[in-house]
Write a structure and sequence with these properties.
The protein is mostly helical. The protein has one domain (about 15-205, about 240-425): MFS general substrate transporter like domains (Growth Hormone, Chain: A). Helices cover about 75% and strands about 0% of the residues. The chain is built from 23 helices and no strands. It has helices spanning about 10-35, 35-40, 50-65, 65-80, 80-100, 105-110, 110-140, 150, 155-175, 180-185, 190-205, 210-220, 220-225, 230-235, 240-270, 275-300, 305-325, 330-350, 355-360, 365-380, 385-395, 400-420, 430-435. α15 runs antiparallel to α16 and α15 (about 240-270) packs parallel to α17 (about 305-325). The radius of gyration is 21 Å and the shape is globular. The chain starts with 10 loop residues before the first helix and ends in a 23-residue tail after the last helix. May be a proton symporter involved in the uptake of osmolytes such as proline and glycine betaine. Its main location: membrane. Belongs to the major facilitator superfamily. Metabolite:H+ Symporter (MHS) family (TC 2.A.1.6) family. This is Putative proline/betaine transporter.
C-alpha cells in the first residue's frame, strides 16, 4: 500500500481560506482574555469570581448560537458556495466586534449594556458556527490528495494566530496602561482592532476562487441540487454526523481548557500576576501554532487515526496531573513547560480534526455535515468549559473539572479507536478515477463508515 503522492500546495487558497479564522478567533478569544477587565463594566460590583461567571455565561451563550450558525451558514455554503459563506461569516464577525466596542456600561444604562454584549456574542456565535465548516470544506476541497492534512492544519494555525494577536495586544496594553485605565476604556481597543482587521480580510476573500469540487457538484442533476445542504439529506449520513459529535467532544473541551481558560486559571488559582499569565499563554500558543503544520503533514503520511488516538490517550491520562501541577506553579518557566505539554497533547486533535470531518461527507452536504454536528458538540463541551471550570472552583471542588476533561477525552478515545481511517477518501469522482493507491483501512469498520467516493447522494 502506497502513500498518496504529494502535490503542490495551493498557498493562495490556503491563506485565503484560513485568514478569516484569524479575525474570527481573534474576536472570539479577545472576549475571553479581556473578560477580567470588562466584567465589572457590565455587572454590579461584588465578588470577582461571580462577575467572571456572568461574563463566562454570556461566552457560553455564544456557543449555543453556533449550532444555529452551523445550520444556517452550512446550508448556505452547500447551496451558494464556499466563497460566499466565507465572505458572509467575516462580515458578521466585524459587526459584532464593533458592537462590543461601543457597548454602554452598567454604570450608565444598567443591564442594557449586558444585553448589547449578549447580542454581539450571539452574532459571533452565528458567524463562527459557519466559519469553521466553510473554512474546513474550502481548505479540504481546494487542496490535492497527499496535502490535505497539511493544508487544513492552517485552520488552527490561523485560529491560534488570532489568539496570539489578542494576547499580544493585551500584553502591550498591560504594559502601557494602568489597570484602572484598562477597566475603564482600554478593553474596548482590541474590539476596534478586530473590526478593522475583519474589513481587510473581507477585501482579501472577495478575490478567492470557488473550489473545483463544489463547482462540479453545482452542475449536477436537479435532484442533487435540490437536496444540497438540507437537514433531510444530512440525516442520510446520520452515522457520520454522530461520529463528528463524538470525536469532537473530548478534543474541543481539552482545547478550550488549555487555551482560553488557562490564562485565568494561572491567575486565579496559581496566583501568577496577570501579566505573567498572559506572557505564558502567548509563548506556549506560539509554539503550538508552529506544531500544527508538522502534525498535519505527518497525518498525510501515517493517517489521521494515529494522531487522534495519541491525543485521546494523552488527554485521558495526562490532563489531571498537568492541571494539578499548573495550579501550583510559581514562575514563568514551569507554567510555560506544563502548558506546552498540554498543548502538544491537544495537537493530535487540533491539527487534523477539520480535514477528518470534511472527509466523512459528500460534497453536496459536506459543509452542513461538518458545521451542524461540530457546532452542537462544541456548544455542549467547548462553550461550557470555562463556566463549568469556574463553577467547580466556586463550589470548592476545582479538581472535579480536571476529571471531567479527562473523562470526555476517554470517551472520544473510544471513538478514535473504532473509527475508520479517512485519509484516502476521494473528494471527487475525478480523484477516484485517477487514484492509483488502494483504499487504506486501519481498524474495524463502523456501520455506515466512509465510502470511497464522497460526492453525490
Amino acid at each position: 500500500m502506497s502513500t498518496p503522492t504529494p502535490a503542490r500546495t495551493p498557498w493562495r487558497a490556503v491563506l485565503g481560506g484560513s485568514a478569516g479564522n484569524l479575525v474570527e478567533w481573534y474576536d472570539w478569544f479577545v472576549y475571553a482574555s479581556f473578560a477580567t477587565y470588562f466584567a465589572s463594566a457590565f455587572f454590579p460590583k461584588g465578588n470577582a469570581t461571580a462577575q467572571l461567571m456572568n461574563t463566562a455565561g454570556i461566552f457560553a451563550v455564544g456557543f449555543l448560537m453556533r449550532p444555529v450558525g452551523g445550520w444556517v451558514l452550512g446550508r448556505y455554503a452547500d447551496r451558494r458556495g464556499r466563497k460566499a459563506a466565507l465572505t458572509l461569516t467575516v462580515t458578521l464577525m466585524s459587526g459584532s466586534a464593533l458592537l462590543i466596542a461601543v457597548a454602554p456600561t452598567y454604570a450608565s444604562v444598567g443591564y442594557l449594556g449586558a444585553v448589547v454584549l449578549l447580542v454581539a456574542r450571539l452574532m459571533q456565535g452565528l458567524s463562527v458556527g459557519g466559519e469553521y465548516a466553510a473554512s474546513a470544506t474550502y481548505l479540504t476541497e481546494a487542496t490535492p490528495p497527499g496535502r490535505r492534512g497539511f493544508a487544513s492544519s492552517f485552520q488552527y494555525v490561523s485560529m491560534t494566530a488570532g489568539q496570539l494577536l489578542g494576547l499580544g495586544l493585551q500584553i502591550v496594553l498591560q504594559r502601557t496602561m494602568t489597570e484602572e485605565a484598562l477597566k475603564s476604556y482600554g478593553w474596548r481597543i482590541p474590539f476596534i482592532v478586530g473590526a478593522l482587521c475583519a474589513a481587510v480580510i473581507l477585501y482579501l476573500r472577495r478575490g478567492l476562487l470557488e473550489t473545483d469540487v463544489y463547482a462540479a457538484e453545482a452542475k449536477g442533476s436537479p435532484a442533487v441540487r435540490h437536496e444540497r445542504g438540507t437537514v433531510r439529506e444530512l440525516m442520510r449520513h446520520r452515522r457520520e454526523a454522530a461520529l463528528v459529535i463524538a470525536l469532537t467532544a473530548g478534543g474541543t473541551l481539552a482545547y478550550y481548557t488549555f487555551t482560553t481558560y488557562l490564562t485565568k486559571y494561572l491567575s486565579n488559582t496559581a496566583g501568577l500576576p496577570k501579566t505573567t499569565a498572559s506572557l505564558v499563554s502567548f509563548c506556549a500558543l506560539l509554539v503550538f501554532a508552529l506544531l500544527q503544520p508538522l502534525a498535519g503533514a505527518l497525518s498525510d503520511r501515517i493517517g489521521r487515526r494515529p494522531l487522534l488516538i495519541g491525543f485521546g490517550v494523552g488527554g485521558t491520562v495526562g490532563t489531571v496531573p498537568l492541571l494539578i501541577a499548573l495550579g501550583h506553579v510559581s514562575g514563568f518557566w514551569p507554567a510555560f513547560g506544563l502548558m506546552l505539554a498540554g498543548l502538544v497533547i491537544v495537537t493530535g486533535y487540533t491539527s487534523i480534526n477539520a480535514v477528518v470531518k470534511a472527509e466523512l461527507f459528500p460534497t453536496h452536504v459536506r459543509a452542513l455535515g461538518v458545521a451542524l454536528p461540530y457546532a452542537i458538540s462544541n456548544a455542549l463541551f467547548g462553550g461550557t468549559a470555562e463556566y463549568v471550570a469556574l463553577w467547580f472552583k466556586k463550589s470548592g471542588a476545582e479538581s472535579g473539572f480536571f476529571w471531567y476533561v479527562a473523562a470526555c477525552a476517554a470517551v472520544s478515545l473510544v471513538v478514535y479507536v473504532r473509527m475508520r481511517e479517512t485519509r484516502d477518501a476521494a473528494m471527487s469522482r475525478r480523484e477516484l478515477a485517477t487514484e492509483a493507491a488502494p483504499a487504506r483501512t486501519s481498524g474495524p469498520r463502523m456501520p455506515g463508515s466512509l465510502r470511497r467516493v464522497r460526492t453525490g447522494p
